Amino acid sequence: MPYNEVRTMLEKQKQGQAVLIDLDGAKALSELIQAMGHDPAVISVADLQRIAERLAAIARKDPPWGWRYLRNVLNWKIEASRKLMDAIMRLGAVIDETPVELAQSERVTVQALGQVRPGALVLADSRPCANPLCGIEFVPRHPRQVYHAARCRGSNHRGHKDHRDLRGVMR
Ligand SMILES: [Zn+2]
């Protein structure tokens, strides 16, 4: 059978069936996941759950969708509901346009101890630790924090004492 005829038959077979919508939902969700910096084929349950909850928040769906539902849509096992498709399109549109704060921000490498997700917008300035022997540059938890850790306050005081001791010895 010529290729063209096979294709026509397949199209006729699918016409009016949910299969076509189903494939579109999987494609749209797959593209959204990629736009959010993940690989749909290997995305973790936690990341997929986070996306499911974000989509649910947009759709005002309570209880929210779960990662399994998204996984099934991705794998063409379940058809995406109209509500989910709508949320995917809306989140996709938001992600495509860069917010002004992100456009003004600068991409730098940080060493995070707190919960800082990749690509997070850090609003605070970093500062050098007030302990001159430390040299760590940190983003403070509190505006008045001058030492990166409590031990630096301690060692800085010891530093002063050592300095005095040294002067005493030199005299
Ligand atoms: Zn320090």
Notes on the structure:
- This protein is mainly α and 171 residues long.
- Helix content is 54%, strand content 2%.
- It is built from 7 helices and 2 strands; from the N terminus they run ααααααββα.
- The chain has helices at 3-14, 19-35, 45-59, 67-74, 82-96, 100-104, 150-170; strands spanning 127-128, 137-138.
- The chain has a two-stranded antiparallel sheet.
- A hairpin with an 8-residue loop joins β1 (127-128) and β2 (137-138).
- α3 (45-59) packs across α4.
- The longest helix is centred in the C-terminal third of the chain and has 21 residues, at 150-170.
- The chain starts with a helix and ends with a helix.
- Zinc ion (ZN) binds at residues 129, 131, 134, 136, 147-149, 152.
